[in-house]
Automatic annotation (TrEMBL), chains A, B:
Superkingdom classification of source: Bacteria
Biological role: May play a role in DNA repair. It seems to be involved in an RecBC-independent recombinational process of DNA repair. It may act with RecF and RecO.
Transmembrane segments annotated in the record for this chain: none
Zinc finger (C4-type): 57-72
HAMAP family attached to this UniProt entry: RecR
InterPro entries hit by this protein: DNA_Rcmb_RecR (IPR000093), Rcmb_RecR (IPR023627), Rcmb_RecR_Znf (IPR015967), TOPRIM_dom (IPR006171), TOPRIM_RecR (IPR034137)
Keyword terms: DNA damage, DNA recombination, DNA repair, Metal-binding, Zinc, Zinc-finger
Gene: recR
Residue span(s) of domain Toprim: 81-176
Gene Ontology BP term (one): DNA recombination
Metal-binding found in the keyword field: yes
Source species: Pseudoalteromonas luteoviolacea DSM 6061
Family: Belongs to the RecR family.
Protein's name according to its UniProt entry: Recombination protein RecR
Length: 199, 199
């Protein structure tokens, strides 16, 4: 038995979801048809609308439906003089959830990876440079991931900042709060020791 | 930071997928926006179309875009005089993949479960009865799942068939091919012994 054409198309389309193979796609398609048609139709609408109308903020490159996102438009944040550089919009969410940071963001949408053809241009460092040259930013906080690529990207941007006379800082590496010393990797422990503070 | 309205709507809508919680929904939404907008838009289209236009075959109750599905329309299958009763459209797929069965199907879309308010009417046994009364079916093969509810449903339908003078049979229970005797449960082993065949 062949699946009916629209059902087959749905199963095939579901495979664009991360981690969904042919069997899961089929299971999801049948689940929606059998038990949640309204939810499925709603999801179809939301997907079509989101893919069509969500673009990038012209100022910080995060996802936004408007040319400039809410955070970039906030005068209070503009006045802070702080700019936090992160790799992806989910990082912005994570930082915002702490409720402690009140500055602006710049979202690279990736990290430097010359082997994959991702250079400074691809992660928007030209946009960042223009932004820094406008002179409203006093400090750039580099919050890229603590991976090899993230570190390299942070160092590259730090150099850029130094050339433009803007202060650059890197978020601290060390023990995660609530972590256990014997379960943490050596690299993190090393960072925790070298970054120790007087009490 | 609030997610932008359409992004928030998409994350919420994604939670209708089975096994997807708030964190996974967010991860999927960002994945689609960052890396696979075409796939996402395509999925949106397919979902909308499928939810709208996939209904049930009037003859066998499986999913179908046409009033009568391909299998029910096949003259060869109608001539076989065989009707296989299964619980869900995925069971039809599984049986069709063996390529050995050439009869018709009847899909219950569930099983008898009086406590959940699912009686004979809800699983379409009135439709099945009308079908059997037309006299084209010589044998009903009961291929409901070997669970308590599946067995109960099979016995109920077997009685229905007997009353109508149609032969009813149940698929065999026993060792799965390639299985190991010491890993199989006692109930299955018991069935395998009681269903033994002369060699």
């Amino acid at each position: 038995m062949q699946l009916s054409p629209k059902l087959a198309a749905l199963v095939e389309a579901l495979r664009c979801l991360p981690g969904i193979g042919p069997k899961s796609a089929q299971r999801i398609a049948f689940h929606l048809l059998e038990r949640d048609r309204d939810g499925g139709a709603q999801l179809g609408n939301c997907l079509s609308q989101a893919m069509q109308s969500i673009g990038h903020c012209e100022s910080c490159r995060t996802f936004s439906e408007t040319p400039i996102c809410d955070i970039c438009e906030s005068v209070k944040r503009q006045d802070s003089g702080l700019l936090c550089v992160v790799e992806s919009p989910t990082d912005v969410l994570a930082i915002e959830q702490t409720g402690q940071y009140t500055g602006l963001y710049f979202v690279l949408m990736g990290h430097l990876s010359p082997l994959d053809g991702i250079g400074p241009q691809e992660i928007g460092l030209d946009v960042l440079q223009t932004k820094l040259q406008q002179g409203n930013i006093n400090e750039v906080i580099l919050a890229t991931n603590p991976t090899v690529e993230g570190e390299a990207t942070a160092h590259y941007i730090a150099e850029l900042c130094n050339n433009l006379g803007v202060k650059a800082s890197r978020i601290a590496h060390g023990m995660p709060v609530g972590g256990e010393l014997d379960l943490v990797d050596g690299m993190t422990l090393m960072h925790a020791f070298s970054g120790r503070k007087a009490l």
